[in-house]
């Protein structure tokens, strides 16, 4: 059948190439429309309780996590030149499109009681620009007498001060977020030059943008490097620019098709779909090497180009087809998970791995038919003396030292299993960043001075309309719970509408800081008259605006906003459980419902789902690949022989991760999926060649294995060397996850090459020696 396919491709090579090029051009046109998706909540299934709670919170109170924070550390803030520069920075930042609101010390307000209007009025504390230090000192004294701002805008002991910018959701969740951050950083840079003080920058919008941009730039550079290293390695092997260029065009077509598919399916580039272009390189390069290797081998035997091309298609198409099928299965199983991110990744990867087979099948033989026959020096790699000696040693070990092979494999796996027992599953919002990176150091500064900048939202629901103000109990309980939260080392000072009421009470009693406390029943009688909590009045009343942002429209639920440290996915559940226990002790569950949510919780929850999804998908992939292998070889013995050489590399890689202290997280778990796809590819190529050669040697297993090792060994080793050379470049990344992707995948490739060339023949020989029932 495949020989006929080869003849068909050669007969209609021109129209097939035209169709392929036109289709690629159309996919390329669609690829230009690809967009980034900055919504990480998609990692969590839409029916997950954490996702539903977060969406419900957003409906009640709007989006959180859109705050960018600037921090400075200086004992000169309340000097005239410095303070005026800070005020000027505030005004410049207000002009930036996408900045909705700014809270800073120069624009801090005080509340004053106006008996004639029967309300509290917001008045500015500072009256910049200053020319007199005494006037600034007087306003500073008033500011420091207001407990509301302590711990929120300044840390007196550390001389640290904050400026919080509320950013537009449309800007932070779109492509415009990079330009928004750049527009914010320009006046910040001017401020730094003017004052000589370093400005710290943090908050989820900044962290996500900065990390995303850095990672995107790195991946682009490394993809180019991957291509260049692969090109150089291919050129060294095949000594042919045409072979090198043809291979790069195949993977280039695959990358183009993958990006076009993302657009056609209505998807966007996400954390995972961004890995599909490198995946196309990983799958496409072996396709090219095996096709070219078989073409050169066949031409060397027949000295006839057309026969060699037909033989190449006839012998390698079935091999490549099943290799791509198993690889596609390995990634398509992600589509059965509950995570939208994994589903999109699985669908796009599965479709394009099969498309890559079609591209290889058409483009390689059709292009080779137009090229001149290979010259002797271009096929010299087939007689590589070093590789021949190496393969002879491998053959000797496989056929005559099976006990040693089993023993060494057992010892390595035993040590690896001990390493697996040490594996940790932990993720951080600033995962993989080097400790010297400004994003990391600024976040740690925020944690040291203000106990963190990552948002945690707590919703207290009274379960009845107007339940927050019918009695003082909800107010007292929220205050009690907030006081407990503030004692924890992982969290900053909580902010809720109760703090606004305490601020109002202080103002009612003429600014006496001793009255910054929870109002009693007597106080509330007067305060209710002075405060309006409906959002329609918010634009005209700063206090009302503050309070209304922390209660829902029915005055039934209130939010407590907390900034926390980046404590990681192991400590976060422990902290939340502790907070939940204290909340249950304070709030009667019959009358209150307390919910813990926020983008930080959702982010780490999403990371957990990605890890779980990847782990379960690998298990499903093994099952489906096993069924595919069983169909292909019709033998349980060969099935068993094929799975063991692919399990060993994964066990070894997981063990190494445990021993060197690399945690399981999305950036490291993906290594196993990529490696499985490559390893099973090698196994299938070896076994199909073995099955094809077996009748030639009258079912003599040792002779067939020896011949298979020699024939497939060269292409297997070359493929591994090309891929390892490409992945090694990722080891130079500044991100721990990218580094891990580079060296862990390289390690798995090397181990899988050894297991498939040494362990697999030993297993086949052992199984063949067993007497038939």
How much of the sequence is in beta strands? 5-15%
CATH architecture of the domain at 1-64 and 221-373: Up-down Bundle
Number of DSSP E strands? 10
The portion of residues assigned to helices is 55-70%
Count up the helices. 25
Let me know the CATH homologous superfamily of the domain at 1-64 and 221-373: Multidrug efflux transporter AcrB transmembrane domain
**Overall pLDDT:** 84
Give the overall form.
elongated
Give the class-level CATH name of the domain at 1-64 and 221-373: Mainly Alpha
Explain what you see.
With 773 residues, the protein is an alpha+beta fold. 64% of the residues lie in helices and 8% in strands. It has 25 helices and ten strands. It has helices spanning 2-11, 13-31, 49-61, 80-94, 133-144, 169-172, 177-195, 204-238, 241-264, 276-302, 305-332, 340-370, 385-400, 402-420, 438-450, 473-487, 497-508, 521-530, 542-548, 568-586, 599-633, 636-660, 666-693, 701-728, 736-769, and strands at 67-73, 99-103, 109-114, 119-124, 154-155, 160-167, 200-202, 454-461, 557-564, 593-597. Helix 1 (2-11) crosses helix 11. Mean pLDDT is 84; it is low at 533-542.
Describe this structure in a few short sentences.
This protein has 773 residues and is an alpha+beta fold. The protein has helices at 2-11, 13-31, 49-61, 80-94, 133-144, 169-172, 177-195, 204-238, 241-264, 276-302, 305-332, 340-370, 385-400, 402-420, 438-450, 473-487, 497-508, 521-530, 542-548, 568-586, 599-633, 636-660, 666-693, 701-728, 736-769, and strands at residues 67-73, 99-103, 109-114, 119-124, 154-155, 160-167, 200-202, 454-461, 557-564, 593-597. Among the domains are: 1-64 and 221-373, Multidrug efflux transporter AcrB transmembrane fold (Up-down Bundle), CATH 1.20.1640; 384-421 and 635-773, Multidrug efflux transporter AcrB transmembrane fold (Up-down Bundle).
